[in-house]
């Protein structure tokens, strides 16, 4: 290398030269430019560091995107690739024109944890060819990937936020989140069904939220009073 003042080559420290990667393998790359899986996990960690160290705004999302693009370029491992898809879907949920596609991606990530046929897993072959348990658990401790129930809850909430109350209600019901189920049916205008669910749940497991929901459905101050007393 050269100094700006002298324009002459400067002698390099042999130890420094030896420490620098001089082959494809030393740089953590394969012959086709593919990253090692541990390096992909590190990039995902750096991506989260950008998110946690900066305000939630469009500029932060733009700074995170290159990390995800590099990881998703090479699908080497099921868990790493799924984490990259999840992070990208969360980013795209903040963009109006990409929100629907992002929620469908979240739905696909939810479905791949199940053996049943679903919207994004519609054939028996797709279920049979899914990654084995060993691939799914590899690098699980290197990544920040939510449990299945938490991912399903997040997807349901995003469905509800988009006004897709039917899909949201079905997912909330699977999770046993009955207050949210009632809100979804109320949003669809199916107040009688919502009321029936509230009454059935109050008979087995009354909660302040359910009493408040019934108060809203029947416009009853007594139900709101009951919810307030139960919440003490």
Notes on the protein architecture:
The structure is a single chain. With 232 residues, this protein is mainly α. It has a domain at 34-148. The chain has 13 helices and no strands. Mean pLDDT is 84; it is low at 1-12 and 21-26.
Q: In what range is the share of β-strand residues? A: under 5%
Kindly report how far apart the N and C termini lie.
73 Å
Largest sheet: none
Mean pLDDT: 84
Secondary-structure element series = HHHHHHHHHHHHH
- Number of separate strands: 0
Q: What is the radius of gyration?
A: 25 Å
Structural class: mainly alpha
Overall spatial form: elongated
Helix fraction, binned, reads 55-70%
- State the low-pLDDT regions, or none: 1-12, 21-26
Task: Please work out how many helical segments DSSP would assign.
Answer: 13
Summarize the entry for a quick read.
The protein is 63% helix and 0% strand. The chain has 232 residues and is mainly alpha-helical.
Describe the secondary-structure layout.
Elements: H1 14-19, H2 37-53, H3 58-72, H4 78-92, H5 99-111, H6 124-128, H7 133-137, H8 148-161, H9 165-175, H10 178-187, H11 191-204, H12 208-218, H13 221-230
Features:
single chain, 232 residues, mainly alpha, 63% helix, 0% strand, elongated, TPR repeat, repeat, TTC27/Emw1
């Amino acid at each position: 290398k050269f100094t700006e003042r002298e324009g002459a080559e400067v002698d390099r420290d042999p130890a420094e030269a030896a420490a620098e990667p001089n082959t494809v393998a030393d740089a953590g790359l394969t012959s086709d430019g593919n990253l090692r899986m541990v390096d992909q996990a590190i990039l995902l960690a750096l991506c989260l560091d950008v998110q946690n160290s900066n305000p939630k705004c469009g500029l932060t999302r733009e700074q995170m995107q290159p990390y995800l693009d590099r990881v998703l370029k090479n699908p080497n491992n099921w868990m790493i690739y799924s984490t990259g898809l999840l992070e990208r879907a969360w980013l795209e949920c903040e963009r109006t024109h990409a929100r629907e596609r992002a929620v469908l991606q979240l739905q696909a990530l939810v479905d791949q944890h199940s053996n049943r046929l679903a919207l994004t897993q519609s054939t028996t072959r797709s279920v049979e060819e899914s990654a084995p348990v060993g691939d799914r658990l590899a690098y699980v401790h290197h990544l920040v990937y939510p449990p299945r129930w938490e991912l399903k809850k997040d997807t349901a909430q995003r469905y509800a936020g988009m006004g897709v109350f039917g899909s949201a209600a079905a997912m909330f019901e699977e999770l046993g989140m009955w207050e949210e189920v009632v809100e979804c049916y109320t949003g669809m205008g199916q107040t009688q069904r919502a009321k029936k669910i509230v009454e059935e749940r109050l008979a087995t497991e009354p909660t302040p939220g359910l009493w408040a929901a019934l108060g809203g459905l029947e416009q009853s101050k007594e139900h709101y009073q009951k919810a307030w007393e139960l919440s003490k």
